[in-house]
Amino acid sequence: MTVLAQTDLRLDANAVDYVLLALYFLLVLGIGYLARRRVSTSLDFFLSGRSLPAWVTGLAFISANLGAIEVMGMSANGAEYGMPTAHYFWIGAVPAMLFLGIVMMPFYYGSKVRSVPEFMLRRFGKPAHLVNGLSFAAAQVLIAGANLFLLASVVNLLLGWPLWVSVIVAAAIVLSYTALGGLSAAIYNEVLQFVVIVAALLPLTIVGLYKVGGWQGLVDKVSGGPGGPEQVNSWPGNQLTGFEDNFLSVLGLVFGLGFVLSFGYWTTNFVEVQRAMAAKSMSAARRTPIIGAFPKMLVPFIVIIPGMVAGVAVTEIAGENKAALIAGDEAPSGATFNDALLLLMRDLLPNGMLGIAIAGLLASFMAGMAANLSSFNTVFTYDIWQTYIRKDRPDDYYLRVGRIITVVATVLAIGTAFIASTYSNLMDYLQQLFSFFNAPLFATFLLGMFWRRMTPTAGWAGLVSGTGAALVVFYLTESDTWVLPGQGGAFVGAGAAFVVDIVVSVAVSAVTQPKPAAQLAGLVWSLTPKEDRQHTATGEDAGWYRNPALLAGIVLVVTIALNIIF
């Protein structure tokens, strides 16, 4: 990889590219400075004072997920697996986003909790709350480290900066605006970053398709190369799941990815939920993930397709190199699938456009890491520090703690970046983390929200046992005791975590005491009045085009059509 990085991958950025990058950084820091003027309380810092419109929180919702791991990782998946990668969007994201907006946001927003772990505290008590708070904090530091490693690698390879300089400069910029302006700075920058990312990737996609003879030319080249015709159809996705049997592959995608991993991520991950909780009203909070689902449906076309183009048009990735990488061997060129997008940029983009593309990659990194930091500082401050270490302090004390812990989280992320560096495809790493942390949490949430009999003891016992089950599957696959190529290990681990969590929770609930029904109103579906679950939109929230159910229906129909077409 060193030979490739020093010679073939280095891009010839000139003064125009550097000016564009400098302007972008100044704009990002300026937004952070302006947002700081609106921060006077901890609620302003951690939840933007619950004052943002739905279109802002909706774009931030999707941008927070469109981090460097998403952009680079999905492009890598596109080069390795082809169109089945779209399942991460059309099966593994959109349905769960709609469920969050329609079913779960009334509970989150209506209860006025400040975080997902705080919801766990009210439903199950302190043991489950502490387990969830610690596991979430650990997950965010690990994911932030992956974002940081990827950006530092990109800057090192594209601009020639030493890796340690890249890490420090990139981390300092994100830390500056997140620590200054809190969630508002992160959200407004995420809206800007979404625009920049699209402006960078859309031209690359168009030029890439032109290079290979359009969509049909891409289909022909992918079908005739390593991986074969299976890579131009999203179903059944055997290479992605690692299952040779079509039925098992579809089952793994629908249950493992589409249900457990997807719902576990989108409905319980505070990184995403925090954006919706910053909205100015219940209607706006419910519309936030649904608005985000519209661009989410289209992201595959500007992320996966460039990866597929690189897989057939970039010398270091195509042909025998791709065959070797698919087989799990080192490519003769020294490249990995993680390099796919960078190599395509090298081959296709002129100066000026290169500066926009680099800014887009930096934007994707900063959106992802800022989301990790802003959610980490909220959960650590409210759910760990305030609850268990320093209670009943003045509000400005917790505001200071939030800013300090943002610095600490950044330093920790620099350390965890080295863990991410051991994976040749970072999406493999990310899916493993989701199977550990999100899948069992979703099982606990789902059961606890719809089954009033579930007890506080079952809440923490289910979480711990579910995570343990995922770790066992991870050990079996890593030791080759159970051979599951692709990302099948993460899918199976997520399914195991979900099932074990449910079984243990039901068993423990049968022999322990539940909370009184009076304490579960607003936390359990059957004990929450219908009017509290279905709010009537009035004033600026009125109008059929602001109806969450109608918007969700439109998204669902289009998503089904995309699954049929591709």
Report what the structure shows.
It is a single chain. The protein has 566 residues and is an all-alpha fold. It has one domain: Sodium/glucose cotransporter (Up-down Bundle). It has 25 helices and no strands. Helix 9 packs antiparallel against helix 21 and helix 19 crosses helix 20. The N terminus is likely disordered. Its main location: membrane. It is a multi-pass membrane protein. Belongs to the sodium:solute symporter (SSF) (TC 2.A.21) family.
Summarize this structure as a short list of keywords or feature phrases.
mainly alpha, Sodium/glucose cotransporter, 25 helices, 74% helix, disordered N terminus, Na/Glc_symporter_sf, transmembrane helix, membrane, transmembrane, Na/solute_symporter_CS
Task: Set down the secondary structure blueprint.
Elements: H1 2-6, H2 15-36, H3 42-47, H4 54-65, H5 68-81, H6 87-90, H7 94-110, H8 116-124, H9 126-159, H10 163-211, H11 214-223, H12 238-241, H13 246-268, H14 270-277, H15 282-298, H16 300-313, H17 320-326, H18 340-348, H19 353-389, H20 395-420, H21 426-450, H22 456-478, H23 488-511, H24 530-533, H25 548-565
